[in-house]
Design brief:
The protein is of the alpha/beta class. Helix content is 31%, strand content 17%. Helix 8 (286-293) links the parallel strand 7 (274-280) and strand 8 (301-306).
């Protein structure tokens, strides 16, 4: 009876040290209330989130869990989306993924296609039991690499009634194949696998995980335009945050390995609930969204191309982000009960 291996209790939330002062890259809204919350995923990792609630809200409201971009923190783009959607009547949480930001998990800066997909479902767990949330009206929104992760989470979790993927990447595809599938060969993948396997040995020998580096700084003269766009967000006061891997020293180098050994969207055709994919007309990543959209079935799927927008415009440019259309999509596919 005292065998701890038989204990099936939910893991307790870790007592995290959370910053209480406003340290976002965007201003507060006088239309929303804000507080820090924590919740635990099924691997026992405690996640930290900012919760935004419409001021004066009463009754049970629809809710949206938001994360991304890949390598960012909740004080950046995901928090901006959360603030904006809360102004439009939703309870929202912008959370830091496992091993990043203010969330728990050791070692730091590890990415996982499985655990990160679970993070979205853990956010749904949390929202489902909040007294001011209607559990039948919960959606998720992923930005950049978390757009693909959001769709993958929705495939496996029917509690997610509607999903928005904004300026999305498929992290499994880009890691295994390179940009525009330019490195899609057994030889190139095996070369990367060999390099990363050797890196594992060195990390273990050194008792330290090498970081892959965040957004390149300073920019080389021949940097592609999309890299310049990343730099303009992550490395300037516009979007820099000290806890963001993209702003600082990046992921652990070996985090790339599981994304080469895993493929998103195998069962995308089985996703019955609603999905909106939003991309900029001029985004280098647009092909990820368009190709993923082709895998989805049903009249509740929508591809929205934003005119004259780049990938990073959909991080924080409120003149380009179609926030009203996103809110309308959630309201349409997470309708209030009659």
């Amino acid at each position: 009876m005292n065998n701890k291996n038989t204990n099936t209790a939910i893991a307790p939330c870790e007592l995290l040290t959370l910053t209480q002062e406003w340290d976002k890259v965007f201003p507060k809204s006088d239309m929303t209330d804000h507080r820090k919350v924590t919740f635990v995923n099924r691997y026992g990792i405690t996640l930290a989130a900012d919760m935004y609630t419409p001021k004066g809200a009463a009754g049970k409201l629809p809710a949206i869990a938001i994360s991304g971009p890949f390598g960012a923190v909740k004080e950046q783009s995901s928090g901006l989306y959360a603030r904006e959607l809360a102004e439009r009547g939703f309870i929202t949480i912008a959370f830091d993924p496992s091993f990043t930001g203010e969330s728990g998990g050791e070692p730091r800066r590890v990415a996982s296609p499985d655990i990160n997909t679970e993070d979205f479902s853990a956010a749904v767990d949390f929202l489902s039991v909040q007294p001011n949330v209607n559990p039948e009206r919960i959606g998720i929104l992923g930005i950049c690499g978390w757009g693909g992760i959001a769709i993958q989470a929705a495939i496996n979790d029917p509690r997610i009634k509607a999903t928005v993927a904004s300026t999305m990447y498929d992290m499994t595809r880009v890691t295994a194949n390179g940009y525009f599938d330019a490195d899609n060969s057994k030889e190139k993948r095996n070369a990367i696998r060999s390099t990363l396997a050797a890196r594992r040995t060195e990390d273990y020998r050194n008792a330290n995980y090498q970081r892959a580096g965040g957004v390149v700084d300073p920019l080389p003269d021949d940097a592609p335009q999309f890299v310049k766009d990343y730099h303009a967000y992550y490395k300037t006061p516009r979007g820099y945050h000290v806890r963001s891997g993209n702003s600082t020293d990046g992921w652990n180098t070996t985090s790339a390995l599981p994304f080469m050994n895993f493929r998103f969207f195998q069962y995308a055709s089985e996703l019955d609930n609603a999905v909106m994919i939003v991309h900029g007309e001029n985004a280098h990543s647009r092909y990820f969204g368009e190709d993923t959209f082709k895998l989805l079935h049903g009249d509740n799927k929508e591809l929205l191309i934003v005119a004259d927008a780049t990938h990073c415009d959909l991080y924080d440019n409120l003149e380009k982000i179609p926030m009203n259309q996103i809110a309308a999509f959630f309201n349409t596919w997470m309708p209030a009960s009659n």
